[in-house]
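PROTEIN ENTRY
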Amino acid sequence: MRRVVMNRTIFRKLMVVTIIVVFIFLILWVLTRPQVLNLGVTTEEKPDFVFENPIIVENNSGMKTWQIQALKGEFYKKNQVAFMINVTANIITQNNPYILLNAPKAKIDLKNNKVTFYNSFLRQLSGDISLKVDEMTWFYDKYLIKGRGNVKLLRNNVTVDADSFEVFINENKFILKNRPKLQFSY
């Protein structure tokens, strides 16, 4: 029986080539797999539905009350959760957009009747009020909006910074929380 002894330099070259091939394979695999938004669902779970340019509208007595549209959306049936990117939302009164909201990401939780917008910017179209916030959640069954993280409210020459806020829609009440700071500029 003859034993084959491999030269050390040949063995090293084979190992380097093998590592390079595996590395190239991993790069190609990462670049070619389908992109999932995955803003809170496990990575093993794939969306049941994927939508391009989805639009969600609520009508009340034949009139639009709100509309959400996005660049892309995914729906997970098991969790009753949808995720959207590049979101624009309108709150509509008397068939005219009243409030415009933009956010790079949103999560719609159908079980808990809420929509959460991330890094959002809200603007009243008929006035001069705007709002920036890290995370804003709209509890649509309770007519309640809560926001937290770097809240900045702008109106004319007034800026208010706060950590969080709540809006009670039915009561027309807006409450800034956690030591809001008020600034006037002239």
Q: What stands out?
A: DSSP finds one helix and twelve strands in the chain. The helical segments are 8-32. The longest strand covers residues 96-109.
